[in-house]
Amino acid sequence: MAGAVMRPLTSRAGMQSRWRDGQLMKKMAAGFIKPNDRLTSFERLEIYNRQYWFRLQDCFYDDYPGLRAVLGDRRFARLAQAYLTRHPSASFSLRNLGRPLLEFLEAEPQWVAPHRQLALDMARLEWAQIEAFDNEAKPPLTKDSLLEIDPARTRLQLQPHLTLLELSHPVDEFLVQVKRADRLRDEASNAMEAHPARLRRRLRRRLKAATVFLAVHRHQDTVYYKRLEPGAFTVLSAFHAKATLAQACQQLGAVEGAPDDLGAKIKSWFESWAALCWLCRLDRE
Amino acid sequence: MPANAFNAFTDYGIGIGLRVPHYNHILSEKPTVDWFEIISENFMCDGGRPLKVLDQILEQYRVVQHGVSAYFGSAEPLNREHLKKLKRLVKRTKTPWLSDHLCWGSVDGRYTHDLLPMPYTMAAAKVTAGKIRQARDFLEVPIAVENVSSYAEFHVSEMTEWEFLSEVVERADCGILLDVNNIYVSSRNHSFNPFDYIDNVPASRVAQFHIAGHTQYRKYILDTHDHPVIDPVWKLYEHAIRRTGPTATLLEWDARIPSFQEVHHEALKARRFLENVEPKKIAA
User: Fold this and answer.
1) pLDDT exceeding 90 applies to what percent of chain A?
2) How wide is the angle at C-alpha B178 spanned by C-alphas B173 and B183, nearest 5°?
């Protein structure tokens, strides 16, 4: 029954008429489900088949409004079906439905062509948001405790809710615009453009390729994006890769355009990171 | 005095499901509510707003956990990671009992996120009861299992749904979360008398009631939790509560959720039935 329930629907949102081996689904359903005076065995099984897909598609739709805006509704629906068929939920929580999406898009880029890189950027951003929403927040390091550490021996950890992204499009701005448009349409549908798809296409056309270094994180229970300077991104990425504080700062030298007043820059970065509670637990070598 | 061994919470009164659209109202207005039921899975995370809101709710209200993915009826063993997370939440909420559904929904680590009906066989009852016992022993909290709404019946079933429910809870020695709306929905979908169902479940094991609304289609009824409770369901509730004595009762409203006041008002309609029932000891 699980195989039938999780099998993709037809284009008319019905249960497929044949099983994988060519057998008629009517016959197969009748083999284990009783009909009643109103519904055939096929129709009773179809209720569960539809519920499964509607539930998962709704969840995917809610979790990836940005990707939907990039692809358009029809192509997004095709992607959803392909992805959810290949990666059925492997978690008790629908929160984790998108966990293997990036891996899927990298393996099967045809679902997002010709916007492959844009779609990958957006999928990474939207997954980072999910992680930021409810991942753990460890006790943060204060500015004072940072002053006491030995840079050569200390490894800093980033908060589990923080994700660093190097993006090739400013999808953070794009996603904010998409959400704003969706919110306005929900609040005052008459005031909005008649065709939301047209609006999304226009937003997408305006989007130009540009490297963006971004941190997606949670602060006081709200998810935020914060643009980072390349140097700051380098140091934080080094912490993420378990470099010591000294090793992380050494990598700055390799960053093109590293600021001249490096000491002051690093100080201001650390002050900002400490204020945002991004740094946590010290692991001594 | 508790009406039965699985209903030590006769004073719990009438609760409602804690839902996101009502968070701000509840936290700012602090309305008087007997208790809130939470969906356990929504709070089995490691941080963020869900747990912060939960902690604020716990400061003010009694909370009972209700799960949707233990899948006691699935053939595979219980998921230990799931149980560990659930236990962490149980310690946080101090839920006096914990409920989940008498159903299956996962196969080989793949989750349908649905409450799929079981074949009513003795073999299935034994496996399911064993898993409920394991969960209770691990979680160290009383468990009540809920009857689900269903849209299909199996040829292999050997007994009625209420016989199956009774068999499972007797073998597992656990409580029942009796959902009278689900009984109504299934009775219409499968053409049985819902009063027969209520009269034949062991009243001595009913720990909690669920009431809810549903959607009537041309050929079947879908359990949508998006409408007020209809009169026939209130009649079933009245009949059931007479058998069980005062029992914790909860209104579910999960889709097209109206204002907090409207949901609470709907839930409090149960009061007229609860107040007319004498606390009593019920024979098994």
Assistant:
1) 72
2) 130
CB A56, CB B113: distance < 8 Å: yes
Residue of B nearest to A47 (CA): B151
Report, as an integer, the average pLDDT of A274-284. Answer: 83
Domains and CATH numbers, chain B: 14-274 (3.20.20.150)
Q: C-alpha distances in angstroms, B54 versus A132, B26, B64, B114, B148?
A: 18, 11, 12, 25, 26
The C-alpha of A63 sits at a distance from chain B's nearest C-alpha, in angstroms, of 15
CA A188 to chain centre: 28
Instruction: Return the structure tokens found at B128.
Output: 């399911």
Q: How many CB pairs under 8 A join A and B?
A: 103
Residue A150: pLDDT band (50, 70, 90) is confident
The pTM of the full predicted model, rounded to 2 decimals, is 0.91
* Chain B residue numbers touching A2 (CB-CB < 8 A): 107, 110, 112, 116
Judged against a pLDDT cut of 60, whether residue A284 lies above it is answered with no
Q: Give the C-alpha separation, A162 to A129, whole Å.
A: 9
Between helix B122-139 and helix B80-93 the angle, nearest 10°, is 50
d(CA B209, CA B206): 8
Residue A60 with chain B: CB contacts under 8 Å: none
Q: Tell me which chain B residues have a C-beta less than 8 angstroms from the C-beta of A95.
A: 45
Calpha distance A262→A267 (Å, rounded): 9
Distance in angstroms (rounded) separating the CA atoms of residues B212 and A210: 52
Mutation to test the A interface, candidates B151, B186, B256, most A Cβ within 10 Å: B151
Subunit contact A218:B48, Cβ cutoff 8 A: yes
Distance CA A285, CA A156 (A): 11
Written as one letter, the residue type at A170 is P
Structural domains in chain A, CATH included, are 2-134 (no CATH), 143-170+208-284 (3.90.930)
Residue-wise DSSP of B143-186: EEEEPPP-S--BTT--S-HHHHHHHHHHHHT-EEEEEHHHHHHH
Residue B142, strand partner residues: none
Angstrom distance (rounded) from CA B86 to CA B92:
10
Chain B contact set for A55 (CB, 8 A)? 113-114
Residue given tokens 């201001």 in the structure block: A268
Q: What is the ipTM of this complex?
A: 0.94
Contact A227, A198 (CB under 8 A): no
